[in-house]
Amino acid sequence: MKAILLGIAASFFFSFTFILNRLMSASGGSWIWSASLRYLFMFPLLLIVVVLHKNFRALIEEMRKHPWQWVWWSFVGFGLCYSLQCFASAYGPAWLIAGTFQITIIAGSLLVPLFHEIRQTADGVVKVRKRIPIKGMGMSFVILLGVGLMEWSQSTHVSIHDMLLGTVPTIIAAFAYPLGNRKMMELCEGRLDAYQRTLGMTIATLPLWLILSLYQVVAHGLPSNSQSLQSFIVAVFSGFIATVLFFTATDLAKSNVYQLARVEATISGEVVFTLIGELLVISGTRISIVGLIGLCLVVIGMVLHSLISSHVQRASSNEPIQMAP
After folding, report:
1. Which stretch of DSSP H or E encloses residue 128?
2. How far is CA 250 from CA 19, 60, 194, 289, 323, in A?
3. How would DSSP label each residue in 91-126?
4. What is the mean pLDDT of residues 44-71?
5. What band does 317 get if pLDDT is binned at 50, 70 and 90?
6. CB 29 within 8 Å of CB 89
């Protein structure tokens, strides 16, 4: 029960990303500052944690082994993903961006063939390309149907131009996130914990955030105090607190595949918290009955997807599933 509550708490803090990004865009803030400031603020917070755990040297040694792969996959998983999310927030409501981004659970399954697993064969240890887990994707249709209904409901309120600019970048971000993060996990091979890897990816993307910040200063000046404060809140609440809570929850549940699936499913709560928060904080927010039905289908689909996937994985292995960091 403790792991479930921690997972729900994590989804609550994760929702601040979508709400505050939309709020900053609605008040005229630049998406470039929204993206850059989050990671510039996250950097010292993560650095303190890793240094206090005396794991910083091990991280630097690991990054020196494959510096360009660290830069590239960090750009994909952090830079491309979050920049596109912030850009999309200028064209779509927070609940729509949050709901559409849940396609990432489907993207993660579709990207599986890009990765390998180690198997023992008669010829020795070999790398085998993974296959798409078809049996575990039954609920993907429910998620896609929900996203389709949300997009259709939104199309009746905004132009096709704005709908596409809010939707397409979010879908690309939903694929970039699992691709970049899983490639980094594959590269590290379990030698780093979640905090080390997150800090390493943040360090690897610092040149991107500094270049974007420099451009924004020259072209449009410094961010407002309000946007700086809101970006700091996103960094602390979503980038730090939510991550700590979620990984703590998965650590508590990692020895039980069914409990782990329930914890993973709690992340769908961020969609609900985002909708409630946006309705309370951002004036003019509205959602039609069709959009609400779509949102509910996304949440239901995510929960069922996690639970069904746990059964499929348990059936294919006698070993407990270990949650990747």
Report:
1. strand 124-129
2. 25, 26, 12, 34, 7
3. TS-HHHHHHHHTTHHHHHHHTGGGSEEEEEETTEEE
4. 94
5. very low
6. no
